[in-house]
Amino acid sequence: MADGITITLRGQEALVAHLKSAPDRLMGHLKNELTAFASDVRDEAAKRAGRRSGRLAGSIEARVQMIGSTKVSVLLKTEGVPYALIQERGGRIPGRIIMASKTKALAFAWMGGVALGGKAFYAHVSWPGANIPAKHYIRNTLQGKKPEFEAICRRAMEQTMRS
User: Fold this and answer.
1) pLDDT tens, 106-116?
2) Model-level pTM?
3) What's the pLDDT band for 129 if we cut at 50, 70, 90?
4) What is the total count of domains within the chain?
5) Can you point out the beta strands (E) in the chain?
6) What residue numbers bound the domain in which 43 lies?
């Protein structure tokens, strides 16, 4: 003689279907939430970039990238501003000889300034180069926004499992 308990499960097909569709629904929720977040991140990075001419700040673009059905990224990039990389990461601009190209000489204010008649003229000058310190306007923005990014992802997961 065998004793036992019998349990009949109902609705497991619907549960399995709900779980199988979760990645697509999650990515949909994430894309909606992260699009607004990406704009905020771009605006914050633009503030950190500075406003000397506004070109660097204006060149920052943000987008949400979906990678397959399980990964999502918020990307920031700059285009069209040749000095963007050295401003972000820092670096050294090597020295060089600067030659007069449109005139016979280069003119500089010298010893008391032009108002006092102080001018110097040179056919060429030696520029020693410069060390450009890193601003990390993109990296620091992304690091600062990481907790908010993680919270958005958690909310999207919770919303996906409830819907």
Assistant:
1) 888 777 655 55
2) 0.69
3) very high
4) 2
5) 60-67, 71-78, 91-99, 106-109, 119-122, 124-132
6) 12-90+133-162
